[in-house]
Design brief:
22 strands, 519 residues, alpha/beta, 7-stranded mixed sheet, 5-stranded parallel sheet, 15 helices
Amino acid sequence: MTLQGTSIIGAARGKGTEALGKSHNPATNEYLEPEYIAATHEELEHAVSLADSAFKEYRHCSGAKKAELLRAIASNIEAIVEDLVARMPLETGLPEMRVRGEAGRTCGQLRMFANLVEEGSWVDARIDRAQPERQPLPKVDTRSMLRALGPVAVFAASNFPLAFSTAGGDTASALAAGCPVIVKAHSSHSGTAELVGLAIQKAVADCGLPEGVFSLVYGGGRSIGQSLVKHPAIKAVGFTGSYGGGRALMDLAAARPEPIPVYAEMSAINPVVILPGAAKERGAQIAQGLHGSMTLGVGQFCTNPGLIFVHEDYAEVIAKETASLVAESASSAMLNSGICDAYCSGLEALEKHDAVTQLGKASAGEGSNQAVPALFQTDIQTFTSSEELTNEVFGPASIIVTYQSEEDLLGAFATMEGQLTATVHGTEEELAEQVALTRLMEDRAGRLVFNGFPTGVEVCASMVHGGPFPSTSDGRSTSVGTMAIYRFTRAVCWQDCPQSLLPAELQDGNPLGIQRSEV
């Protein structure tokens, strides 16, 4: 497929005049054709206008019609997998296996949302029938359900070019809710975005839906992104990226005349606790799992375990085995030079810390933007008194923190910021005794992992990929799993409404056959 390097504005292509540059291979520093062109503000305005117009029709589409679109997008992505395999590794340094796996996950979550909206019960239909004879006052008939919020701006992620980008979870859940989507492409994988964007554009046309249901815009700096968030027709934002980027969007959205929600996944260090019994019983096995988790995807997963708490009497086997595995690891190219520079700065800060010891570090390989896996160790007193040790080092690095008592461990957790995950390894007997720790984990994280590892997020109905601030902007939400659809909805109540005006989900007789709450 020949790439044009321009935005997708509804059913058309952008033209623009401002060159953004070519995509860049992080491993070889080679530049890839074509040159990408920024959307003009006129094109952005047109994309938002199309989305606003499309919302008037798309919001009322049946679950079956929205399911048709989501499945068509999935089928179109599957049809271009070989094109993605050819392009995405050149832009990201990620291997072919990752491309195929992430494409499968992306298509799987699209079909998951298709099944959800086709079945229909997700709207949470509630019916309280009138009781005109009730004393002392009659009861009116009220019926409520969730409705689509409006056009959504989605900012593609750097570290998941498919599953958290153009057709990723934010886009899939917004489209499932009935919201048109405008995606701001990420400069790290412009060609991948264009390929997927064309697949969505075709699906919208083939399903006979308004062209404004989807657009994809390119832009350098912050101008296009800020204009998108500030536009009065945009009603919500989905973002996966850095704390600084997410916080800037939150502030921008809050300062609007009509503030809107920003669902931002930002940063986490995902603490792992290894209790004494587990360390003694299977320390080497746990160390192997930790190494695999911290180096998976060159450590560029938001659930990468950045902290490992181990009792000082049992830390040696974990530290020695993990350090050995880290030292034998291969360095790999990170997604872009900015991420690599930030990782190297994080490593340098840890190496210079007076009370932090480097246990193991891999050798730097050939090529550009190489991330070198590294493992460090400190004690819990240093950790709790050094705020900088709670900063995320985005990449294949972790810190072992030794503790002396359960009180020390609980104290450290009590001061920790919000996380995406918190993990504990223990024997069955140990875990049964960790009520206090488990409750602290629940306070600090969106997903609690027992005798496992945080990387690897299952796409399913019960998954929560979110957590208290600053891991996400709104700890009540998730960006993975079917609950993600609720981010882009609002509740509407109909009081004493004629049957002819009620949505099918709320009509007497339940014509859609969905599960409802009725009184």
